[in-house]
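Module 6 notes. Inverse folding takes a fixed backbone as the condition and produces residue identities as the prediction. Think of it as a translation problem where the source language is geometry and the target language is the twenty amino acids. Below is one complete input and output pair. Work through it position by position during the lab.
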């Protein structure tokens, strides 16, 4: 089969599909990943064909607060819709859609008669088990959670409505809003695969058949890749350091966060590896090393704890490595994943980004790195996750579509 995977957003919204795509390719399929242009190297490194989509502007990646997040998302969706009509070619047999691209991709699938499959990184379907992942962590009760979940879907429909109308016009399709298209898909009981671990989020008890949690799709890492020599030397030169990084969050706050991180490390008496990321963290010293992009799969098993923004992918990577976390959620679904890690005992209580101080970080670091309970809980979760085969289960579903 010729499979096109369409994913958009930040790096964490795209990178997992490089691992999924590589697995589909090993199974004998031809795989194209359509994603924003900055991620072309990630896709090609995995041996996959790349097709460009509009990128989220840098200023929007750092948006914090619900209103700012909605404004930036609306602008991004508009541009994404304008670049979406050219995602597929005539030879495409299957369109695999992320949660970010599904509201657009299902119209492209309709216009071309191409089968589509949802492949989402976070739980989007309403459930009584927990509230929507983007609205916070306080349960509203089973009825309230489901009601809030349906409301969240309606808000997403409104966000995509202008882009959908424009896209359907370009494709020569009659008017149909995103809400009606979504309800049509639900009525057809279309399959949606969820790429997260049931160790973190058990499959909700009230989800319909066809909504399947398959496990985490890990970003592709070349089997021959090794850590940079400078980082390897630092890791072996003393006790295990802690990792501190905020991914695509906190743009423009590098100087403040770097000073805060170094002070916290010194208060806790720990060595540290700072990942520059979008924030631009940077520090020098005998006990601190700054690195750029490094595969979490190679680095996290070598550290004592991980301080991170609690994105879905980074949260899963820390858990997979059996390493305690200090979650510092910034926005969107990050408080949800931070709370899940803490509930497992594999993380300290979350420290909201807006409340982060050197004192609070030092205290959390000391507990994460030295309290054996967090390490034991993380190790237990890692053993459970090791038995998951998300790519294998996905390949089974994809190949079942041919029958």
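Target side of the pair, the amino acids:
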């Amino acid at each position: 089969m010729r499979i096109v995977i369409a994913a958009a957003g930040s790096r964490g919204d795209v990178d997992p599909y490089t691992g999924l795509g590589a697995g589909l390719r090993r199974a004998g399929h031809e795989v194209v990943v359509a994603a924003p242009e900055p991620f072309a190297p990630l896709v090609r490194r995995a041996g996959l064909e790349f097709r460009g989509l509009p990128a989220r502007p840098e200023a929007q990646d750092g948006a914090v607060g619900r209103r700012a997040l909605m404004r930036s998302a609306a602008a991004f969706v508009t541009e994404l819709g304008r670049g979406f009509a050219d995602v597929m070619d005539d030879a495409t047999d299957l369109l695999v859609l992320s949660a970010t691209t599904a509201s657009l991709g299902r119209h492209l699938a309709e216009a071309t008669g191409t089968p589509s499959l949802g492949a989402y990184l976070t739980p989007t379907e309403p459930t009584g088990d927990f509230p929507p992942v983007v609205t916070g962590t306080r349960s509203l009760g089973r009825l309230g959670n489901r009601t809030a979940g349906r409301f969240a879907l309606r808000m997403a429909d409104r966000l995509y409505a202008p882009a959908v109308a424009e896209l359907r016009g370009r494709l020569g399709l009659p008017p149909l809003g995103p809400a009606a298209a979504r309800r049509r898909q639900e009525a057809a009981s279309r399959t949606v695969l969820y790429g997260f671990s049931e160790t973190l989020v058990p499959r909700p008890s009230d989800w319909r058949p066809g909504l399947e949690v398959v496990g985490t799709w890990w970003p592709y890492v070349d089997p021959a890749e090794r850590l940079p020599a400078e980082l390897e030397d630092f890791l072996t030169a003393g006790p295990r350091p802690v990792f501190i990084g905020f991914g695509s969050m906190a743009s423009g706050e590098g100087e403040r966060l770097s000073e805060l991180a170094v002070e916290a490390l010194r208060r806790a008496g720990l060595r540290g590896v700072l990942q520059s990321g979008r924030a631009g963290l940077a520090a020098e010293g005998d006990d601190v090393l700054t690195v750029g992009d490094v595969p979490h799969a190679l680095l996290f098993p070598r550290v004592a704890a991980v301080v991170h923004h609690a994105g879905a992918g980074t949260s899963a990577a820390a858990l997979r490595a059996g390493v305690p976390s200090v979650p510092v959620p910034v926005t969107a679904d990050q408080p949800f994943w931070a709370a899940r890690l803490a509930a497992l005992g594999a993380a300290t209580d979350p420290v909201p980004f807006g409340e982060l101080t050197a004192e609070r970080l030092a205290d959390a670091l000391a507990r994460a790195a030295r309290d054996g309970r967090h390490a034991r809980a993380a190790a237990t979760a890692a053993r459970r996750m090791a038995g998951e085969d998300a790519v294998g289960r996905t390949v089974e579903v994809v190949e079942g579509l041919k029958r």
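Reference fact for the lab report: The CA atoms of residues 54 and 79 lie 6 Å apart.
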